[in-house]
Amino acid sequence: MVKIHWIICSAFLLFCSGCAVSNTTMETANQTNNQKLLRVGITTNAPPMAFRENGKVSGLEAQFAKELAEQNKLTLRFVELEWKEQIPALLSGKIDIIMSAMTITKPRNYQIAFANPYMVTGQVSLVRLSEYNRFSDGFSSLLNPRVRVGTVKATTGNLLVVKNKAKGDILEYSNAEDGVQALLRNKIDAFVYDLPMNFYFGAKYADRSLTPVTVPISREHLAWGIRKEDTKLLQQANSYLQGIQSSGKLKEMIVRWIPFYEKLYNK
Known about the structure:
Order of helices and strands: HEEEEHEHEHEEEHEHEHEHEEHH
Number of helices: 10
CATH topology of the largest domain: D-Maltodextrin-Binding Protein, domain 2
CATH architecture of the largest domain: 3-Layer(aba) Sandwich
Distance between the termini: 88 Å
CATH superfamily of the largest domain: Periplasmic binding protein-like II
Helix content: 40-55%
Oligomer: single chain
Strand content: 15-25%
Radius of gyration: 24 Å
Shape: globular
């Protein structure tokens, strides 16, 4: 009985040992697979920068992501998130990089690292064509108490307007399309949003007499967000960006997606 008991115990221990080795191997394999993935956080409600087209993620940021992954032999995986979820997802390790037309700000700099900026941009107003002259002075015209200004919650445009407009209506929307529709329905007089997107909406709704004011009301830089400790990915992102800048391809890519931007390029 003792001998049989010893054999059974030995077999059990060997089995458990095998399980432990198997689990370790699986964990190592998963880590290796994760290292070969580029998980890109993206919010697909900001054409022409990031949006869905024919069921696929598209836009300038999507093109950047594909080329960054290819250059570093990584498998690209888009992770679609709401805008407010981007930084928490990055910090928790759910994504590796934010490529979603994010503006560099001091509060964000405290939390995450940014690759080198790839685009100079800013906030602009989208208005009705018949009222363009009313807003042609840029930001000062928005501060009139009688002007109803629309913004998207928790964006740099929203913070800019809230901080500076002491009197008058400020209407906040959950997404840009809602703000544009409010402008079309005469619920607001101007919609403040990022330059690329408001120029896109101006083209999309030109037949309904919407137009962007081509005087930026702020100067901002767009860049990709990366965890501070992920120095390898930061170097890879900057290397990719440096390559397309020096070759002239970066400008070509931006102007392809945002044709009007050529006159403003890096001013």
